[in-house]
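Input/output pair, single chain:
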Amino acid sequence: MYKNDKVIRRYSEPFKLKILAELTTGKYTKSDLCKLYSIAPTTVNEWIKKYERKDLMNTRVKVETKDEITRIKALQKEVEQLKKLLLKKDLDAMVEESYLEVAAEKLGYKNVQQLKKKLNI
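Output:
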């Protein structure tokens, strides 16, 4: 055999988009589609990159030990606590600003900046 006896396959744009659409629906996995249509997985990955469909790329998180699982759960819990604290801080800042607006109005200032200037805040 000669080195140049390889079969070169060309796929149409509608066919590529059809494969990506089938991947999107979740009915078939990437490996299922590759077997079904006799396409190399690297070819499908190239189409995913070409059409900027990074959501279809395989993403894996490999957890090997119980310590890692415990650490991930602890970090997730910490993230939730930090989100709640940030929300509380934002609400407190809004309430404080509202109080300053009311105080400025009651004391006869045109705006909060004048009150802050007067109080050196």
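Residues 66-107 form the longest helix (42 residues). The mean pLDDT is 85.
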